[in-house]
Specification:
single chain, mainly alpha, membrane, transmembrane helix, 361 residues, two-stranded antiparallel sheet, 13 helices
């Protein structure tokens, strides 16, 4: 997790200081660099960068205007189609990938894997604020109980010993899942980095890191959702009725932040310039692939969590029945001596009554 945070900060720093207009997507690379007056536009831009600096807005806007005046109308129409496709991407990916609630569940039970899936599927489907949610039962244990549970998700010893080969195979499968999730997250980071370096955002043309900001800020809604989920499952929360309002408030904040995240992503992706439809399809395809992988992993892991919870519930029911059976047996054993004592008392009373009657005779 620390490595991913460090990677995000480094990428944002490098993206904010990188020199723009040096790399382009392949389909329109020649059009933007070597066709017509494009070389002259780039030379004028390099001269103005040396004079005013790369962060001066006028140097960027002047180059964009020069390149667009040199671009054919058919190419402009193609780039406009790419903007429509990219602008719809955050909303579409939110319907493909895991929901906020599912991501919060995964982050609570498997924090590292949940973080990877959150970054691998940054778009999210948000719900209605202040909507009533179904309460859940308090968990049997906390995901932060030990270091082992961060990886395998459970510290409970199995009822029967597991063979060494089977245990090794299970760990290899878990490692493969983590590697796939890490690959999905890295794919999203590289895709956002490339999009920021090889395109220009129309309303912030001097910044090449806005796509990375969109990826990283997906953690903000998740913090609210994870807080609400952990509060909802706490045994202490179930005893305090006033906390239900706090839980609903955190869920609502996560939905509002998720809506803001989708709006920000739509604003950024629909404003990128100098990318064609074919290249935009590649960008959307890579994001979709990562979202599908993270959705599959999330569904798989939450199913495992549900199965483990069901097994724990059955074991708890069996243990409760066993305890009741023992209590009933103990009560029966305690009643039996009392019955015997009462029987002896009756026998003694009969003998005394017989003796008194004999004396009377």
């Amino acid at each position: 997790m620390r490595l991913l945070v460090l990677l995000s900060i480094t990428a944002l720093f490098l993206g904010s200081n990188a020199k723009q207009f040096e790399h382009w997507y392949p389909f329109y690379r020649w059009t933007l660099t070597g066709e017509g007056n494009a070389p002259t536009c780039l030379k004028n831009y390099a001269r103005e960068v040396d004079k005013f600096g790369p962060q001066h807005s006028m140097t960027c806007k002047t180059l964009v205007s020069c390149i667009y005046s040199n671009t054919k109308e058919i190419d402009k129409a193609d780039m406009s189609s790419a903007l429509v496709l990219l602008g719809l991407t955050p909303t579409v990916l939110g319907q493909i990938g895991p929901t906020i609630h599912n991501k919060a569940q995964l982050c609570f039970h498997y924090p590292v894997l949940g973080l990877l899936c959150v970054l691998g599927a940054p778009a999210m489907a948000f719900g209605m604020p202040w909507a009533k949610t179904d309460p859940r039962e308090p968990p049997q244990g906390n995901a932060f109980a030990s270091g082992e549970k961060w990886i395998v998700g459970s510290t409970e010893k199995p009822a029967q010993p597991v063979p060494t080969l089977t245990r090794l195979l299970q760990y290899l499968i878990r490692l493969l899942i983590y590697l796939i999730a890490a690959g999905a997250a890295i794919n999203v980071f590289l895709n956002a980095w490339t999009l920021g370096q090889q395109t220009v955002v129309s309303w912030k043309c001097t910044s090449s890191y806005l796509e990375l900001v969109w990826v990283v800020t997906t953690l903000a809604p998740m913090l609210f959702a994870i807080t609400a989920y952990s509060m909802e499952g706490s045994k202490r929360t179930s005893e305090k009725k006033g906390w239900a309002l706090w839980i609903r408030s955190f869920y609502s904040l996560s939905n509002v932040a998720g809506a803001g995240h989708v709006i920000f992503g739509t604003l950024v992706f629909s404003s990128v310039l100098f990318i064609g439809t074919r290249d935009a399809l590649g960008v959307v395809g890579r994001l979709t692939g990562s979202a599908l992988v993270c959705q599959f992993i999330t569904a798989l892991e939450l199913e495992r969590v549900e199965e483990e919870s069901e097994r724990k519930r059955k074991r708890n029911e069996e243990s409760e029945k066993e305890m009741k059976r023992k209590e009933e047996l103990e009560k029966g054993e305690s009643i039996a001596p009392k019955g015997m004592q009462c029987g002896s008392c009756l026998a003694r009373g009969d003998s005394i009554a017989g003796g008194l009657q004999a004396q009377g005779d």
